[in-house]
Amino acid sequence: MTTTVITHIGELVTNAPDAHDLLGTIRDAALVVDGTTVAWVGAAVDAPDADQMVDAGGRALLPGFVDSHSHLVFAGDRGEEFAARMAGRPYAAGGIRTTVAATQAATDEQLTSHVARLVAEMRRQGTTTLEIKSGYGLTVQDEARSLAVARQFTEETTFLGAHVVPDGTTPEEYVALVTGPMLEACAPHARWIDAFCEVGAFDEDQARAVLVAGRAAGLKGRLHANQLGEGPGVRLGVELGLTAVDHCTHLSDADVAALADSGTIATLLPGVEFSTRQPYPDARALLDAGVRVALATDCNPGSCFTSSIPLCIALAVREMGMTPAEALHAATATAAAALERSDVGRLVPGARADLVMLDAPSHLHLAYRPGVPLVAGTWVGGRPV
Ligand code: NIG
Ligand code: FE
Q1: 331 CA distance to ligand 1 middle (Å)
Q2: pLDDT at residue 130 tops 80
Q3: How far apart are alpha carbons 40 and 274 in whole angstroms?
Q4: Which of 35, 193, 224, 252 has a CB 3.0–4.6 Å from the CB of 1, allowing a cystine?
Q5: If you average pLDDT over every residue of the chain, what do you get?
Q6: 306 CB under 6 A from ligand 1?
Q7: Cβ–Cβ under 8 Å, residues 59 and 52
Q8: What does DSSP assign to residue 297?
Q9: Torsion from C-alpha of 246, 252, 257, 260, nearest 10 degrees
Q10: Distance of alpha carbon 210 from alpha carbon 206, whole angstroms
């Protein structure tokens, strides 16, 4: 196996769990890749010999970003809906049906090439692990093929048949379909199950029924919760011991306390608030209460069409009270935990060699230089992508 030493790293972020600072930062560092994994990290002066050498020239090297929440399998465009929103119309979950119609009409090849384009866009911005949901099919066949398409790009696939109730069916009939034949067809292609627990989508009992059925079929649960208003979602997620509840925009004190007492991660998606002109969630209050916070994009054609984790980090720092270190940790180590992954999100011996080199001396520049394409190189499993 070929070994490569990356040396003259101005700042290496390891996210080592036992480090003196949150990010496990090492200055003037080196990192050795052996095949697909990290073999060694430390001070450049102590670096062992390797077959190849890459000179980072003082730039920062970070763990690849982990985007634990995206909806990339879709067709169509909702730019007009975005423009109307910027002119004052509020965001409503009903726009999902527009994308469902376009997705059902698309061929498998069209869906696959569209996902490929978005995944390439993410890679260029430093994302090395991503989760992809279904949820724009809403028939047995269209949900199953959405997940089969997603599986070509990631192991972290999520069955979101319970995204919205399609026209022409009752909520009761649709939940029976989602928890029955649709789940059966989708489970082989999915690792996770999700539901949109919100007024206008699925209520607490319906979301619980979906998550419990998914668990019985071997899927792990996550939930869209408290996005458009306060509601039962976060507490349901905690009650069911879910790995993560996502959005968490509108939280009561009881929701924050329930999260703090649980192992459930709150995934914040600030691109959504940016793109829907909603108030941002209070990340500071969550962190101060002891809640584990992850950051992800939610990349989707309706509420947030960004694929950029660097943008989300900048928003989290500017708008949600996170420090640059907390925001980066949330988009790497904690986002990995939100996918129950210990092989990614950190650069320690044995981890997958998923690396981002910034054209900047430190991670601070992700928030300090918003909108600037700072990612100079991305490696997945030791290979440049
Ligand atoms: O995560 N909240 C539900 N689903 C997506 C939005 C879907 C859409 O508007 O197309 C979200 O924001
Ligand atoms: Fe989402």
Answers
A1: 20
A2: yes
A3: 39
A4: 35
A5: 97
A6: no
A7: no
A8: -
A9: 20
A10: 6
Domain 3-63+346-384: give its CATH superfamily.
Answer: Urease, subunit C, domain 1 (2.30.40.10)
Beta-carbon contacts of 123 under 8 Å, excluding residues fewer than 6 positions away, are 378, 380, 385
pLDDT value at 1 more than 90? no
Report which protein residue has its CA nearest ligand 1's atom 12: 303
Name the residue of 196, 303, 304 to mutate for ligand 1: max ligand atoms within 8 A of Cβ. 303
Question: What percent of the chain lies above the pLDDT cut of 70?
Answer: 100
Give the residue range(s) of CATH 2.30.40.10 domains in the chain. 3-63+346-384
State the distance from the centre of ligand 1 to the C-alpha of 10, rounded, in angstroms: 39
Which residues are bridge partners to 133 per DSSP? 158
pLDDT at 362 over 90: yes
Q: Please, where are the H alpha helices in the chain?
A: 79-86, 96-105, 108-124, 140-151, 171-177, 183-186, 204-216, 233-239, 253-260, 270-276, 283-288, 309-320, 324-330, 333-338, 365-368
